[in-house]
Amino acid sequence: MTTDEGGRVSFRRLLHRLTASEAEIEAQELRRESAESGGVPARQCARGQVVCVNGRLRTVVYTPRTNLPTLEADLYDGSDVVTLVWLGRRHIAGIEPGRHLTARGRVAVRADRKVIYNPYYELEPPK
């Protein structure tokens, strides 16, 4: 059982953890970790805003193009996804699915998706 700040047993939280799906629990933990790191929730990011987001990479895709190759990674923080795009890159060491990182940059919107081009990033140590 879990206890709240007053020392009382929180049956609601216990019941939620027992009945929630694995994806819901993971999203909740990612939101908590992001908030603890000082990151802006991805769902609150808006076009033109300079943000710091923290989360886990879901997918990493290299897109070969004739004029400009790109490496794209979907960063999920439990609330929404922000796509990180590195222009002219084929591979970046440590940028792989499942990796936690913090990214900083200006949010753009492409095809109704939040995107940060060439973000400054810090890889979190593997857990």
Structural overview:
With 127 residues, this protein is α+β, with helices and mostly antiparallel strands. It contains 2 helices and 6 strands. It has a 5-stranded mixed beta barrel. A hairpin with a 6-residue loop joins strand 1 and strand 2. The chain starts with 10 loop residues before the first helix and ends with a strand. The model has no long low-confidence stretch (mean pLDDT 82).
Characterize the largest beta sheet: strand count, sense, and whether it forms a barrel. 5 strands, mixed, barrel
Percentage of β-strand residues: 35-45%
Number of DSSP E strands: 6
Q: Which structural class do you get from the secondary structure elements?
A: alpha+beta
Mean pLDDT: 82
Helix segment count? 2
How large is the radius of gyration?
17 Å
- Stretches where pLDDT is under 50 for at least 5 consecutive residues are none
Shape: globular
Q: What is the end-to-end distance?
A: 25 Å
Trace the largest sheet across and list its strands: 1-2-3-5-4
Query: Regarding quaternary structure, how should these chains be classified?
Result: single chain
The proportion of residues forming helix, as a percent range, comes to 10-25%
Q: H/E series, N to C?
A: HHEEEEEE
Report a brief summary of the structure.
The protein is an alpha+beta fold and 127 residues long. The chain is 19% helix and 38% strand.
Which helices and strands appear, and what pairs or packs with what?
Blueprint: H1 11-19, H2 22-36, E1 50-63, E2 70-76, E3 81-87, E4 100-110, E5 113-117, E6 120-123
Parallel strand pairs: 3-5
Antiparallel strand pairs: 1-2, 1-4, 2-3, 4-5, 4-6
